[in-house]
Write a structure and sequence with these properties.
With 693 residues, the protein is α+β, with helices and mostly antiparallel strands. The protein has five domains: 277 residues, 3-Layer(aba) Sandwich (Rossmann fold); 108 residues, Beta Barrel (Elongation Factor Tu (Ef-tu), domain 3), CATH 2.40.30.10; 69 residues, Alpha-Beta Plaits, CATH 3.30.70.870; 114 residues, Ribosomal Protein S5, domain 2 (2-Layer Sandwich), CATH 3.30.230.10; 82 residues, Alpha-Beta Plaits, CATH 3.30.70. 28% of the residues lie in helices and 32% in strands. The protein is built from 16 helices and 37 strands. A seven-stranded mixed sheet has the order 2-3-1-4-5-11-6, with helices on both faces. A six-stranded antiparallel sheet has the order 18-17-23-14-15-22. The longest helix is centred in the C-terminal third of the chain and has 18 residues. The N and C termini lie far apart (71 Å).
Amino acid sequence: MGTRQPENTRSFAIAAHGGAGKTSLVEAMLFDSGSTSRLGKVEDGNTVSDFSQEEQKRQISINTSLITMERNGKTLFVLDTPGFADFVGEMRSAVRVADTLVIAVSGTSGIEVQTDKAWQTGEEFGLPVAFYISKLDRENADFGKVLSDIKAVYSEKAVPVFLPIGSESSFKGVVDILRSKAYIYEINGSGKFSEGDVPADMAADVASARETLVETVVEADDEMMMRYLDGESISDDELLPVLRKAIASRLLLPVFPGSSTQNVGVHQILDFIVDFFPSPLEARTRPAKKGDKDIEVAPDPSATFSAICFKVMVDPYVGKLSFIRVNSGTLTSDNNIFNVNKGEDERISSFKFMTGKEGKDVKEIVVGDILTLPKLQSVQVGDTLGMKGSTVIYPPIDFPKPVYSVAITAKSRADEDKLGNAINKTLEEDPSLSFEKNAETNDSVLSGMGDMHIDIVLSKMKERYGVDLETKTPQVPYRETIRKTAEAQGKHKKQTGGHGQYGDAHIRYTPLERGAGFVFEDNIVGGAIPKGFIPAVEKGLRESLVKGPLAGFPVVDFKATLFFGSYHDVDSSEMAFKLAARLSFKKGILDAGPILLEPIMNVEVTVPEDYLGDVMGDFNSRRGRILGIDSKGHQQIVKAQAPLAEMFRYAIILRSMTSGRGSFTMEYDHYEEVPAEITKKVVAAHKQEEEEE
């Protein structure tokens, strides 16, 4: 198995609503573990975790940061995830690979929308969960209230393992409930404390909390539970191993109090993690496929090596870093590795245990390790890594679909030349982004999770790749269709000396159901048009339908039936019949009652009940319609449809309307007719553009 022992590893992701104190907790952990000599502060821009220029400028986490530290002979892999909705993809990928999830909840603000997202993601992946109630030194902090809310909203299994000593400005330490020990801190950020007895005024609360904790823990051991129910006293030595089992099996969700900026209680949290969080060997199996067969990969260090790439970072100086989590086996750096998804070998240059932007080389990795591999060429986020010949593939990481789009244009020719490379590198790093060149509108559309997400991406592209971009609202990919049946003759006749040009086509235009596209029907009888010219008629129609008569958008959902025509033995040609088809199209579509169609989106909005009325009213103002409302916990889920034209800035509006507590998803559903008054505006705008050109 080698020298590295997976039982000495702990990995956990820290997730929260933005501003709840995740990064501050990580900084305090780094300081208390001796990894740093000073306590980094977000407001000072000197944290190990938030190391990018954009993070330090905005004082928020944008990327998941991998932190490796040592504590009491154990290696801790900490994934500090962003807390803003725009970067939820980073949080999801980190939780996917961690063994435990720590959810930070502000002692002043309580449960917020991204708290819910973190909890839901932990539930989805079946992770053991712990809660950290932060900022207990702040005014209006209330440990008891936040704890009650966590229990009510998420689980009664959320049970404190420590209690705070004091509150707000008098918060000065924590009590270990099981061991009945008090830790009184020096309130100066040093993390120094003295150990003593439980304060007399807390004795009753501690005794009650201990009873609740013991009742929860013994549920993980049938024999112990029977002894407890029979009134037998259970010693700490017996309880502590079962406590570990209870956490791993999600029967207990430990709750920690603390203040990260004052470094109060963090020492005890670290020791608790080391002692009681599950090792990789105790962690859940990982679902995978082997060929067509569904399997579960056990965390076995002696099994065949397998890992998943959950993040890619492109550093302009170091190059590409692939972040991986080892799910089985052991590997040394003198081996090659195999990208199972791509079927390609990759040479290993080194294994790096990361602490922020700094990496430490190691020679061997084993199940449970979270690390980076530099310069893997073929590896993308979600790819499975293994040994040559392996067929085990882990399911891809499910990233949320983008909901906010801008059309981008390069400011200069030089920017345009560099744009392709910058886009490709950026998309490789961030799978929650998408980019497409819309063939209908000719817009280059960059889509992400919100305006902040896009703004940061554009800043990064300028900083890293020297690409300066302008943005505007994308054009709506309208389409045109017809309302009634019409017939039109298209006759192209030209005599210029020598061979002339002659083509004559009579075509019937009939509306079809939505989504039917374009259908061409040859109904010529008696040789009115020779067979050899009929494909030219169809070609002429297909070239014409890309630009409709109303506002220049593609014409869809109609059938063109060629039913009559004439030809000339000498002057007829494919070109003449193609031009005849175009003439027929231009007249026939106008006679068939052309109308404008717009894309309609399925929208699902998740909001607390307090905002339900505002959201529903807003949809009415967007020409939307409410399809239904579901409840999930204390959240309301509004299902609706609305035109794309009304949804481009919805991410910003929803955030403002719900104080950041609302989120939504959106996907295309169908096209439907545009109201007459809006059609007039779109047509007028099109005519103005044509005149300006």
